[in-house]
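[Automated response] Your request has been received and processed.

Submitted sequence:
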Amino acid sequence: MVQSQLLVINKLKPGRILSIDAFRGITILVMIFVNSVAGVSGIPSWMEHAHGNEDRMTFVEVVFPAFLFIVGMSVPFAINSRLAKGDSFWQLQQHIGWRTLGLLVLGVFMVNAGDVNALATGMNGALWALLFYACIILVWNVYTFKQQWIAWCFKGVGIAGLIILGVIFRGGDGSGRLTPQWWGILGLIGWAYLYACIIYQLFKGNAGGILLMIAVCTGYYILCRHPFMQTGGWQLLASQGGNAAHTSIVLSGMLLSLFYFDEDLDLRGSKLFARVTGFTALLLIAGVMLRPAYKISKIYATPSWCLFSAAICVAVFSFLYFLIDVKHARKWTAFFRPAGANPLLTYILPDMVYYGMILAGVSLPAVLGQGLPGIAWCALFAVLMLFLVKGLNRLRIRLQL
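Generated structure:
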């Protein structure tokens, strides 16, 4: 596909970027393992989430930022691809808006899925959750029917199902409605995605402007923590401090993507190495300088956590880029490709299995819930989920927001 500078924002390398897909697939594999191992007792502290009052981070705290970072890496490709295909400005905004809304809706449903009051709702909580995930597949599956009306029928059934499930939902003591107690991981990604897309377009993909906005997002978080922002009419603005922090990570991924793949920047060899190294050093130095005032905390989305996480993601992706795109060691990435190309499906699969086991009355042996056997099982489970995604892809089940 030939891209015109009149139609796109940045002149990016065409086609899928294998190193980005591999990074996404690895992140999802680690995410499944981390979520599973959280229910295992007697695991080392470096496998656990840090508590809110601690000033530390383990590799577990980098999984969510890695998702945000990869979203940022993908945004320039997604926006430029739509523009090159002929989308108008408003068509592009509509796509971004619908994608954001989808992430927010999914986030809210997933947060509430574990709090179903079966008696008040009129159905078993596990059944409600499984029906919700079935509706997700119906709505967001990539259909290949020649007759588009068939696909829209499936989507319509899914949308109707989501509406019904949302209306009948009762949580807690039976009086609670479906509400965003918090937006969930997907919802938080949705807000950060929206803000990053707006920033990318406002600055027309300019690397310097994006770097500036990383600093602005960090500064906005700091401002939102000031006492005067916690009172009166300022509270609504202050509530976006966490989203601004997450957006800074998305923008960091976006900037790195431009460093590596924007042909107009033409960063190669030592020039590319110097730019990426300098960016990493800047993130680390800023994190160290802010740490005394803002301890490392994923729960509070502190600047030090954001900056250190972004720096780690830069280093990990750079290694993958060197291995895959420079040294052409690509065969091993085949295992991660289905998950990397289908992140939403891979993300919801473990929950579907979990609720399916509850509904069927199946439970794991107690030995798999503790210590080394539990860790080994969680690792095996994560690998099995990636194989399951590959099998579902062959059945033409592939989700796309």
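Summary generated for your ticket: The first helix runs from residue 18 to 37. The radius of gyration is 22 Å.
If you did not submit this request, please reply to this message.
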